[in-house]
Amino acid sequence: MPVNYTTPAPEALFPVAGVRLGMTEAGIRKPGRKDLTLIELAAGSTVAGVFTQNRFCAAPVYVCRAHLATASTNNIRALVINTGIANAGTGEAGRQAAEATCAAVGQLLGVAACQVLPFSTGVIQEPLPTDRLIAGLPAAKDTLADNHWHDAAHAIMTTDTVAKAVSRQFVIGGKRLTVTGISKGAGMIRPNMATMLGFLATDAAIAQPLLDTLVKEAADASFNCITVDGDTSTNDSFIMMATGKGEHTFTSGAEADWNEVKAALTLVARQLAEAIVRDAEGATKFITITVLGGKTRAECRLVAYAIAHSPLVKTAFFASDPNLGRILAAIGYAGITDLDVENVKVWLASQEKSALVSEHGGRASSYREDDGAAIMRAPEITVRVDLGRGAETATVYTCDLSYDYVKINADYRS
Amino acid sequence: MPVNYTTPAPEALFPVAGVRLGMTEAGIRKPGRKDLTLIELAAGSTVAGVFTQNRFCAAPVYVCRAHLATASTNNIRALVINTGIANAGTGEAGRQAAEATCAAVGQLLGVAACQVLPFSTGVIQEPLPTDRLIAGLPAAKDTLADNHWHDAAHAIMTTDTVAKAVSRQFVIGGKRLTVTGISKGAGMIRPNMATMLGFLATDAAIAQPLLDTLVKEAADASFNCITVDGDTSTNDSFIMMATGKGEHTFTSGAEADWNEVKAALTLVARQLAEAIVRDAEGATKFITITVLGGKTRAECRLVAYAIAHSPLVKTAFFASDPNLGRILAAIGYAGITDLDVENVKVWLASQEKSALVSEHGGRASSYREDDGAAIMRAPEITVRVDLGRGAETATVYTCDLSYDYVKINADYRS
Q1: Cα(A80)–Cα(B171) distance, rounded to whole angstroms?
Q2: What is the pLDDT of residues B142-162, one digit of tens each?
Q3: Which is it for strands A46-51 and A237-242: parallel, antiparallel or unpaired?
Q4: Which residue, among B281, B326, B346, B385, would best test binding to A if mutated, counting the most A CBs under 10 Å from its CB?
Q5: B338-358 pLDDT per residue, tens
Q6: Which of A32, A87, B62, B403 has its CA 20 to 30 A from that of A157?
Q7: B333 and A55 in contact by Cβ < 8 A?
Q8: Fold classified for B10-278
Q9: Residues of B with Cβ-Cβ distance to A363 under 8 angstroms
Q10: Whole-number Å distance between alpha carbons of A184 and A169
Q11: Which CATH number does A286-411 carry?
């Protein structure tokens, strides 16, 4: 069960002018599950993406990078997404399969193969059943419609227990801005540049260089701040699409509304990323870890991830056990070799309560175990660490480690 | 149940001349469990140790370092070890408690406080009950005997399911060498310089500078190669003791037998370290990860630890599922940014069978899923990775991740 997240109703997801979505069951994943999604973009849309830094990156990630490299001359017109098979660890044959998929989509929609971006998610190192995928494309095309975000969010799921979608309309500078996005992912989540799969569309017109920069900044403030198990996937991809069919237009970034629009798009990206952690495999708690007082942002992230990845800290959260020494131990081994523990402070907070738990290298004198226990029972918990050595800060979102994480991942292929 | 490890019988543990051990129930841990151990060393013994690099290191680690710093002028004569409370994250009060313990042991045995080394293991950030500990010391002293290694191995356990001891006699250069050691630890295991607690004694005479170097080399080849959950403890300590009551004497390291004796002592250290992984919390498999073909040992260790710490890889081992893409993903995100996956090869092996599973960035053409499945069912599995870019190598020992790891760590304090 996800932590404080439910999929919005279909009517709560605003269509984005210039985007149509279609999906079908192509027999790639389990019977009875839609596993193939097409997203068609109006001519003139701009698209930018960030992808996994995993060296064993998936074949579709190679192909996306190549096609986006020509995006200024050949606008991207379609995305094709399959679940069931990740097409990663599949070598040259995998890249040919991804290219063949793009060629088939291009032929169907009357655009060039290099105007199509392919995405896959599922089991690694098994071959993509290209024949079944291509055979399913016409059925997906037949369902293309602008109000199919809800169905698309379902069709890209794998071990997710809920479909993830966020949709918002803003009025900025008197003009309406629509932003709708979907994401998927529940395990093998420690995005490095982007998450498993995230797609975000807006009706603003955003020039390619602006969008290229924005997608990186938004990823750094959203998908690059979440972790479930520390495993960076081979397929992480986060895509931003701007159709230019709405009321806003940005060509230089000097426009008055640009900063506010950037903040709006980043907010939706962060909510999509948070939804992944809330639905993390086996998760029962949503944990925010904020590290402040660091010399550099990098060292704040080091400490935040050490806490977020510690199996001992994660099992203590699962047990609602204020075993705070485990957090101290993680801070201590995070890699700041000249950390003076005398200056480190640690707080634990729920929405109702906050407690200083540690200072001067030991337990805070004001700390009461009952307070810690009450906070640990909450479904949303914040760990705040002050390193006491600078002004930088970083935040990471994660979850607890439960029996069900082991069960889900021990059973995944069976 | 530990993987292929059982505690040797008491009579299989050779006494080391010059070492006596005593233990008692001081009421620090659970009722009915011995939790306080004294080790007395003959005058003239040399002692060297390595300790955790965790910045939140425990109070006894501070005190050990200070006492060992004067060890060339004040030979160490006793070790005192308690379980139940780690005396870590306890600030200045914790250091005073460790010093008070040493003073009480010194008074009891007629040596100086700075000739005593203190060790604690258990819950972090709770105060050490110094009164109960000191009150228990006379009873521990009354049981001092040279054939109590078996009882001492039991008395230092916490979540361990078996006591860990290794004892060997060698004949090197016609002279007998006796080596006996004990260790403890089952979780929060990713030693960085040393393990939770490991104590190794020999009857050779080894000059202090030689022993100082040897303890580091032996730790690097043993305790520093194991990981259970990636959590570096606050209390890791590995101690080597040389009593000089046997037939060997080493003063310069130029002696003919020194290399062979070093190898013998290192072998016992490695077996003690392996015993910790075999008894890791919830472990059902013992996994050896060897990475070769690296440019540096450091990058080989990076890849080996990425595989060893991946919860997805660990749960696949638990499930006996040859989900090999998870191993590729871990290699890919380990941090070698210029890794050419085209040159990477991965083998999986049990004692009966070996299979090349991956090459050229994809599944090896000769690989059969049945072979992978057969290997994954074995209790001892080796993952061998050739990075194909150099001549360096590294090996790491680890275990799988099971329901029981979560259960043990969710319940630890209750």
Answers
A1: 70
A2: 999 999 999 999 999 988 888
A3: antiparallel
A4: B326
A5: 999 999 999 999 988 999 999
A6: B403
A7: yes
A8: L-amino peptidase D-ALA esterase/amidase (3.60.70)
A9: 89-91, 125-126
A10: 22
A11: 3.10.20.340
